[in-house]
Amino acid sequence: MQPPYTLQDHLKKEWKAAKEGRGTDFVIREKGAETVTEKTPSLQAHKAKLLMHSDTLFRERCGNFKEKNDNTNVLELRPEICTLKTFEYILEFIYLGEISLNHKIDIQQLIKISSAADYFLIDGVSTWYSCRRKENYRRGALSLFWPGAYEF
User: Fold this and answer.
1) Would 22 disulfide with which of 11, 17, 64, 74, CB 3.0-4.6 Å?
2) What is the full DSSP assignment across 103-146?
């Protein structure tokens, strides 16, 4: 018997709240916008969650860096390091522990996600992807010899 409310349910609820901006206290946007309006593309997140999962952000916000003295709760992404879309995948991983396979992510995007996660020192993204890739490879190989083996 499965408990009525699982850890996965809790994580999904947190992710939904972040996407809707409920209880968030941190804004992520791409650097370079001269003026910032409500229509400027951005993501919202819970600062504590980000700082727990990113050593880079923790050091910037809590260490002896310029950003520590900056009272804004805004992360401006440099597009050459990480785009807003790439960081959205990283946030999904931080909140859910995985990136949904429903996304149509090509190999170039996966490389960008992995590189950005490495830059922000977020553990597990590269490992998650390589394990998932091996699992899908095994599924495909097994399906050749045993059709329907991994149909859910």
Assistant:
1) 17
2) S---HHHHHHHHHHHHHTT-TTHHHHHHHHHHHHHHHHHHHHHS
- Give CA–CA dist 73/60, Å, rounded: 12
In whole angstroms, give the CA distance from residue 32 to residue 36: 10
Residue-by-residue DSSP string for 11-76:
HHHHHHHHHHTTT--EEEEETT-SS--TTS--EEE-HHHHHHH-HHHHHHHHSSSHHHH----EEE
Helix (H, G, I), strand (E, B) or coil at 77: strand
Residues in the chain: 152
Predicted confidence band of residue 17 (pLDDT cuts 50, 70, 90): very high
The answer to whether residues 46 and 95 touch, using CB atoms and an 8 Å cutoff, is: no
Q: What are phi and psi of 94, to 5 degrees?
A: -60, -45
Tell me the pTM.
0.74
